Amino acid sequence: MKKITLLIGTFAGSLLLALDASAAGKIDFKKDIASILEKRCIECHGPDKKKGGLRLHTKDEAVQDEIITPGKPDESEVYARIVLPKDDDDIMPPKGDPLTTAEQQKIKDWISQGAIWPSGFVIGGAALAKKEEGPGPAATPDEKKAIAELEKAGVSVRQIAQKLNWTYVNLRVIGSKFDAKVFAQLARVQTLQELNAAGVNLTAADIANIGKLKNLKRLHLEHTTVDDKTLAPVKNLANLEYLNLFNTKVTDAGLNQLASLKKLKSLYLFQTKTTGKGVAALKKQMPKTYIDTGWDLKELEKIKAEIKAREEARKKKEEEEKKKAEAKKKADAEAKKKAEAKKKAEAKKKADAEAKKKAEAEAKKKAEAAKKKPAAKKPAAKKPAPKKAAPKKKADDKKK
Ligand code: HEC
Question: CA 112, CA 79: separation in Å to the nearest integer?
Fold first, then answer.
């Protein structure tokens, strides 16, 4: 009797499960399975860790014989592990609660239905992409060397943000003329994401070097000599998101080259030789790009003021240095004079001391000679009698 009840119970259970499965219908991998794997398995079996030599975030790594055997949950280690008793050493996940029976069932059904995994789907892909954006590649020894050389030339390569390897360089605040070497060195710094060369004297070779910065996202070329021809290397910057060409000689022909910049989000074209027609044509090719043909006049004034201030600061510095050099020259001459005077004084002191010594020696000699030969007694000179002072008249009397 007992046995029969048990049988019926098991049967009813199976029936319920079967009903459940049919109610769930076809399992949707993205909706039903990916979230379970992402929440409970990927931290140990994903891009970061490969516990037990297993990764479960891509189809190629997860759906393989005996791990996940399509159509055969009973020959799939993944299923076998998740349905083990809670206290079994081999249960997955090894920490936290076991998967719920509903989750276990979903995985079983999904495997039974052929373990369909949409091609190219990566579990945690969004987070992964974000991470790849992340700190960026560490500088290679050659990049470090180039950065050191740039620093020596007065060009600072700075981190975009703390904990990031991506860098930026702002030439605009440093000057307007740079040696061609600086751009050759910059071209070696592949961590560069932002370059501000506004107002800088750029040669075609310099721009060609800028065109080698494959990771560049933001490029300021406003107020430079760039034109259609010299702009050409910029179209190689596949990651470029921001390009500023304000106040350059670029025309519609130059614009045309930019259509290949698939990631470009903003393009600034105020005071270029481009026309409304050319811009409209480009807009058609790059519908997602924000193309600015106007310019905030305040920004324009700001740039002009900055350039002027930079020029003035340079002049001031030069003058100060000149003054400093002159002051130093003067101080040096004075110090020399003083040193000479001191030398002279010392020589005099020495001569005096010698003369004194000589005089003393002579005096001594004389004294000794005098002792030996007593001098003849001189007759005492007769002192004249002191004159008697005439009595003074009293001033009071005279007044009265
Ligand atoms: C906290 C870490 C951790 C989590 C989370 C985790 N595992 Fe594991 N897994 C391991 C370790 C460690 C091993 C290797 C030791 C072993 O085989 O038990 C392993 C082994 C495995 C194996 C055996 C691999 C083989 O080649 O034999 C499978 C299958 C597995 N895990 C599936 C899963 C599934 C499915 C999940 C999520 C439901 C999961 N694991 C969650 C740590 C984890």
Answer: 11
Nearest-CA residue for ligand 1 atom 12 is 51
Strand partners, 290: 266
* 167-170 and 158-159 beta bridge pairing: antiparallel
Mutate to test the pocket of ligand 1, among 74, 81, 100, 104 (most ligand atoms within 8 A of CB): 81
- DSSP run (H or E) holding 163: none
Mutate to test the pocket of ligand 1, among 39, 44, 57, 64 (most ligand atoms within 8 A of CB): 44
Q: What angle in degrees, to the nearest 10, is found between the helix axes of 2-24 and 101-112?
A: 70
Look at residue 272 in the predicted model and tell me its pLDDT. Answer: 92
Could you give the 3-state DSSP secondary structure of residue 292?
strand
Biggest CA-to-CA distance, the chain = 174
**Pick from 50-54, 71-75, 216-220: least confident:** 50-54
| pTM exceeds 0.85, yes or no | no
Provide φ and ψ at 328, rounded to 5°: -65, -40
Strand order in the sheet with 242-244: 158-159, 167-170, 192-196, 218-220, 242-244, 266-268, 290-292
Quickly count: other Cβ atoms within 10 Å of residue 199's Cβ: 22
Flag whether pLDDT at 3 surpasses 60. Answer: no
Q: What pLDDT score does 33 carry?
A: 96
Q: pLDDT of 202-247, one tens digit each?
A: 999 999 999 999 999 999 999 999 999 999 999 999 999 999 999 9
Identify the helix (H) or strand (E) that includes residue 362. helix 297-372
Are 223 and 198 spatial neighbours (Cβ–Cβ below 8 Å)?
yes
- Supply the DSSP string of 17-30, one letter for each residue: HHHHHHHH-S--II
- Give buried/exposed letters for 370-387 (b at 16+ CB in 10 A, else e): eeeeeeeeeeeeeeeeee
pLDDT value of position 327: 94
